[in-house]
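Two entries, shown back to back:
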Amino acid sequence: MIKKAETKDREGILEVIQAVGLFTAPEVEFMSGLVDSFLNGEQEDSHYWVVAEKDGVQGVGYYGPENFAQEVYNLYFIGVKPDKQGQGVGASLVKFIENHLHELKQRILLVETSGLPEFEKTRQFYLKQGFVQEAVVREYYKAGDDKVIFWKKLN
């Protein structure tokens, strides 16, 4: 089942963020702050955290509007516990998010990720979900770490 995140999901969300193993401690702490501000009602109503649950949180998605663009959202984070990857949890989260954004009459969904080798599986996942690799911004995150941008039309 996929649903809007609730306060009771907090620990499970943080567990997923840490379990994917792709983020530094400061990045995990930053994301933890985003989760808390959402759960406390401090984020804009147009930002969403959703969870895939089955005997606890298995996967998480976070998305919000792209600034200065009309009807464009950014999928800021999607993650699935390593022992649940490859079982359709991530694909179900993407489909849920796309359906929600369709209901909101959004046009485009963007995803940005790292070009580092450890993110190859992530990039392949987005391609399998029908995203198109739209751009690469060289050395965006830090020297040697490109930003790879994926694009998908939501009709």
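entry 2 starts here
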Amino acid sequence: MANLKAIRKRIASVQSTKKITRAMNMVAAAKLRKMEQRLMAMRPYADALIRLVEKLNYHVETAHPFYVRRERGVPLYVFISGDKGLCGSFNSNIIRLGRDLVKENPGAYKVVMGKKVRDAFRRMEIAVEAAYTDIFDPPTYHVAQEVADFLARFYLEHEDVTEIIIVYNRFKNSIVSEITQETFLPRMREIEEPKRIFLAEPDMSSMLESAMKEYLESEMYRIMLESLASEHGARMTAMEAATDNAEEMINELVLKANRERQSMITTEISEIVGGANALQ
């Protein structure tokens, strides 16, 4: 009887867990749809901005510093994880790759975004130049501006920085995301020299500076949205798998409880029959 009570208590506990994982799955799915809409709306704007920057850069006398490549130095890595867990391997993949990249480039500069990668680097005693946490609930353009401005200043002030590489989970669909190492700075020319010449006020250089700043901020914001959409997708998938596992465990426990109950009934019947035979 005591064993049957323990099994039923276990069933109740797993059922409670199942309700939580199902609710978290639904919340993640709702947040993913919202984030996906924002991301799809952001991508065309970022593409249009870089085309404008490219056209302006062709009409200035000297190339913008963000287009000048540096031959010697070390990279600056920006690692982006989530602030929360329960999302499968979303955070651990970034942390693992970050650890490997740091080992390969011990002199590299590091910036982290997200509590999970910050805490992991602390445990591994990896020093960072800056850490941004509590920035994804919800992600704001203001934070993207702050991070982009910091990276741009750091690149200009440290001539030993050859490139700024952002390591994050790029969103593909609700199930799939891929870890991406994307070069933030310096920029690469992406279009051919434009044939059309246009006028700019007050001048080309000022307009290029303003457009470049806006582009870097929007690009950082897009990357933050990509990472957060990937996190919601990973959490939705993980919670769906957890719900399915809970359902499977409940079925096994119910079967086990039925067998235990049947065994108890059989034992009781045997005892009754044995008692009746003894009385005869």
